[in-house]
């Protein structure tokens, strides 16, 4: 049996408060294991699109399915559970929590899904090694650089084997060398997990890891 798409967006429409239309009739399908970069001029609505898929904002029209499960016509808590179980986030807005250790931060998606705490922390330790920070589980975020924190964000996004990963400018604040390493790590980890990745970026280097680069405009997404 073939897996359903990691993400299906159909005829999505969104206006900002005040009525200005950002996009309409927007369609997007992301296959398992596929990396899709979304580019486009500043203010066109890239982060808004990601927020709609993430459930942080609601669309005016259209449908969104994650791992074959439609989010529409469900109660809020049912949607929250689908996103919690099937989506990983590498967003500035979901920053690493300063009062939790690195292992606790990475384990958070499993703990929120009520997995066993000891097993979750053990998996977080493995993920830390996978992202090149072995033995750092007891450290706190304040002890890390920006690039190292982004490694933690990637480990946390992947720990629960999500079908879909959403990343908003994952290398935005990093120097070019660190950005290169983070992109390579993200690619390796995504390929290993067969998750679909939607990557919003202005960076040509970041877009270069994608299987497809799409440009967002007022009528939707077009291949670059
Ligand atoms: N809650 C809101 N109220 C009013 N306008 C909003 C709101 N949210 C977003 N916008 C507007 O919607 C437009 C799209 O914003 P968005 O952040 O999605 O663009 P973007 O393409 O990601 O831009 P950038 O590349 O600069 O990050 C912007 O003009 C923004 O001002």
Automatic annotation (TrEMBL):
Residues 7-224 form the ABC transporter domain. The keyword Transport applies. Keywords: ATP-binding, Nucleotide-binding, Transport. Pfam families: ABC_tran. GO terms for molecular function: ATP binding; ATP hydrolysis activity; transmembrane transporter activity. This is ABC transporter ATP-binding protein. CDD domains: ABC_MJ0796_LolCDE_FtsE. One of its GO terms (cellular component) is plasma membrane. PROSITE patterns: ABC_TRANSPORTER_1, ABC_TRANSPORTER_2. SUPFAM superfamilies: P-loop containing nucleoside triphosphate hydrolases. InterPro entries: AAA+_ATPase (IPR003593), ABC_transporter-like_ATP-bd (IPR003439), ABC_transporter-like_CS (IPR017871), ABC_transpr_LolD-like (IPR015854), MacB-like_ATP-bd (IPR017911), P-loop_NTPase (IPR027417). It comes from Sandarakinorhabdus glacialis. Coiled coil: none annotated.
